[in-house]
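Notebook entry, structure prediction.
Reason for the run: the old model in the group folder had no record of what sequence produced it. Starting over properly, with the input documented here first.
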Amino acid sequence: MALAHSYSAIKDFENCARKYHEVRILKNFKQENTDATLYGTAVHKAFEDYIKDKTPLPPQFEQFKHFIEPLANLGGDIRCEEKLGIRVDFSPCGFFDKDVWFRGIPDYLAINRERGVARVADYKTGKSSRYADSGQLELMSAMIMAHHPEVNTVKGALLFVVANDVIKSEFKRDALSEIWSKWAGRAGRIEQALENGVWNPSTSGLCKFCPVKTCAYN
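New structure, fully documented this time:
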């Protein structure tokens, strides 16, 4: 069985291998939408419409305009929700290709080809940025550079619009081998679990939100 990895899938596995196996591989359980996830989806859609079509933000999201307006006016080749795929040899491929190894969808991507710089942003609607993980931007930056060889620098930002915070990062092409080595290692632990058939559960504060009702920790 060939696995297609992503940032969210790897985080799911590292948080709890049992949940990853039950939800993502066996599909015995489904992660249901919550008020928080539905809100996040609505914010993402409103931001995309504003950037692509200049559709005014709905009144309930007007408070976030100072985050999104600079992105809409940045210039360059602007893309929203572009689907990216990477093969195991780190070459670019289609999101749904049979040999895809990693998948990613940046919320926002702007490419300045003359300068060789791309900007990537991911929108967050959580109430706190305390546990922000820039690894998401790191992985996305590597995928962007694979798909766009003219890009040598990716400037990333996690936009915590509700918490009113921005977490910034920057990645260079000369760090690509180190980045891919790190993510290949994290993906390799999932592939090892698949080979061994060992999916041990982990207990944490997230257990109360887990859909795997047959787990002893739920």
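Summary: Residues 28 and 52 are 37 Å apart (CA to CA).
The old model has been moved to the deprecated folder.
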